[in-house]
Every structure is written in C-alpha cells, then in structure tokens.
Amino acid sequence: MSDDHPSRREVIGRLAVLAGLGALPACGVFGGATLVAPVEKLPEGSALRTTVKDQPVILVNVGGKVRAFSGLCTHESCELGWNQRQQLIRCPCHGSGFTPDGQVKMGPATRPLPEFPASVRDGKVFVDL
After folding, report:
1. What is the CA 55 to chain-centroid distance, rounded?
2. I need a surface site. Which of 27, 45, 54, 110 has the fewest CB within 10 A?
3. Could you tell me if 64 and 99 are in contact, meaning their C-beta atoms sit under 8 angstroms apart?
4. pLDDT-derived band of residue 88, with 50, 70 and 90 as boundaries?
C-alpha cells in the first residue's frame, strides 16, 4: 500500500468524526490513540504502569501534564517504576533514574526514554503508539 492511502483505522476514525460519533468507545480508540485509564487513576505527582498494544508504558502526571513513555529502561530493557519521593522514573535492575520528562538523571542508562503522544479528553487518558 502506498503512503498516499490512509489506513483502515484512519478512515474509520475520520468517518466517526464526520458522523458526529467522536470516540469509538467499543474499541477503546479515539483517532489513532488508545484509551488507557481514567485520569483519576493518575493524580498529580504520580505515575501509572500499564500496557498499550502489548508494549509496557509508564504514564506520569507532574505539574498537571500527563506524559507517556516507554516502560522499559534504555539501558537493558528492565521494566520501570516510579519513585514518589524522588519524583523519578526508576529502573529497579541497575538503578537508572529518569526525570518526569524522560531525561536521564542518573545512569547507567545514557539515552532518554522514548515518549509517546498522550492526551486527556473527557476525563480519560489516551496514548498513541
């Protein structure tokens, strides 16, 4: 298929918007984004580990902004967690730490976390992988 043709998902999303349906709650997709959680599960200053399309994702809400990052450390792909006291995304395997904007705070990781587009609509968090 050439790049000139939209995917089936894009066509369905466009048709839903044109028909006034907005989000397609039956499949948990809004445009290309996937419904992940209600925003109340991610209060200010917290994080939420989840899976989107079989990929580990960590959501953080710091400063009232929800962001989504790969849930795997860029050092050796261990699953990441959140240190509430430090306000850091942390790797339990080798101690790497990442700031809430995905930048390396402490190694051994040297690369920032890949970020995915995230948005909050109607009290729900959506992530686009």
Report:
1. 10
2. 54
3. no
4. very high
State yes or no: pLDDT of 53 exceeds 50. Answer: yes
* The pLDDT of residue 95 is above 50: yes
> In the sheet that 124-127 helps form, which strands lie side by side, from edge to edge?
29-30, 33-38, 124-127, 118-121
Three-state SS for 71? coil
d(CA 37, CA 39): 6
Do the Cβ atoms of 26 and 96 come closer than 8 Å? Answer: no
For the chain, the average pLDDT equals: 80
Q: Give the separation between CA 120 and CA 42, rounded to whole angstroms.
A: 11
Q: Which two tokens stand for residue 45?
A: 């200053």
Whole-prediction pTM? 0.72
Integer-rounded Cα radius of gyration of the chain: 16
Q: List the domains of the chain with CATH numbers.
A: 1-31 (no CATH), 33-127 (2.102.10.10)
Sequence-distant (6+) residues with CB within 8 A of 67 are 59, 60, 61, 100, 101, 102, 115, 118
